[in-house]
């Protein structure tokens, strides 16, 4: 492993930082070189600062090169970068950027020191160092985006809505699901509502047999539906709040308000080996509660971001989604997002690096009526594919 992380605070996702460090080594043409990264707190870095640099108090980052004072070479072992998580968090808050972004910046700063540059030597070197840091951060962003593409899961509820409107047997959501998969969807989502207004039990059972990618059953945490889910065994379930009067799911689950009940329900699904996702508003307390009740995934509600009517409101809502996604990832949860996404609003959400999958229904079905389902799915897929380029 070229980059090795030690996190004495236990507050970060080690794999994520190691991956960043590996990509940075690749970005500066040093793949295979060894870099050790230590994440510590303010007292920890203050001790090192005093012992090795004779300076008092904490700092944000320290770099200890294997070949201290030597000119830039091709050493296999580069040395150590030490970051104070406390200082990084304060700086991130002051700059209004995410903790992960600040850590990436400090990692780059430390790495450039290890590569032999020192901003304290001269102003000319400080300029060269700043330019190299900007360049490395840009390359890191490109590499990270290329790594993974967000997956697209299609919700076929509205095909059933149309069928139920006539009370006959077409159009069939099972056929629609197959077309979505053929067009490249990575999963199929259906919501089996207590009032059976669109998807029927028969649809869920048939889809279980025909879906080749991943069947995600959306449902209220209600005993009748839980029993069906445990019998049919979808690949995962997404728990949503459900009201009879609503046109569509209106808001996220209040996980904080029903921790005991959700812990019990999730434990039953865990026992059956069925991962559970909780559909929540982009609220950090709900994220933490989701982790506490044992969810595997959260699906961050993007409805308010999509419904925003001014650019500044949309930016604010987007920030909330981005922060909630990052917090969930950091807490070890897997992260999906959805609700209200359309051909205009999806790209920005699909570009967020921590989100694995988007769940989209209405916009794709509305377009499908005009251009055909295959084309509507492919066009949405292209948006997802291009978002992280
Ligand atoms: N995610 C959840 C939890 C939902 O309830 C819905 C709507 O069924 C969706 C995603 C998809 O929303 P839309 O149909 O607006 O794309």
Structure, described:
With 389 residues, the chain is α/β, with parallel strands linked by helices. It has 2 domains: 144 residues, Metalloproteases ("zincins"), catalytic domain (Collagenase (Catalytic Domain), 3-Layer(aba) Sandwich), CATH 3.40.390.30; 239 residues, Aldolase class I (TIM Barrel, Alpha-Beta Barrel). The protein is built from 16 helices and 12 strands. The strands form 2 sheets. Strands 5-6-7-8-9-10-11-12 form an 8-stranded parallel barrel, surrounded by 8 helices. Strand 11, helix 14 and strand 12 form a beta-alpha-beta unit. Helix 3 crosses helix 4 and helix 4 packs across helix 5. It is elongated, with a radius of gyration of 24 Å. The model has no long low-confidence stretch (mean pLDDT 92). The protein binds pyridoxine-5'-phosphate. The site of pyridoxine-5'-phosphate has 19 residues, from strand 12 and helix 15.
Report the uncertain regions. Answer: none
Bound molecules: pyridoxine-5'-phosphate
What's the total count of β strands? 12
What letter string, H or E per element, gives the SSE order?
A: EHEHEEHHHEHHEHEHEHEHEHHEHEHH
Give the DSSP E fraction (strand runs of 2 or more residues): 15-25%
The overall number of domains is 2
Q: What number is the mean pLDDT?
A: 92
CATH third-tier fold name of the largest domain? TIM Barrel
- Helix % is 40-55%
How far is the N terminus from the C terminus? 26 Å
Structural class: alpha/beta
Sheet with the most strands, sense and barrel status: 8 strands, parallel, barrel
- Give the overall shape, derived from the CA principal axes: elongated
- CATH architectural grouping of the largest domain: Alpha-Beta Barrel
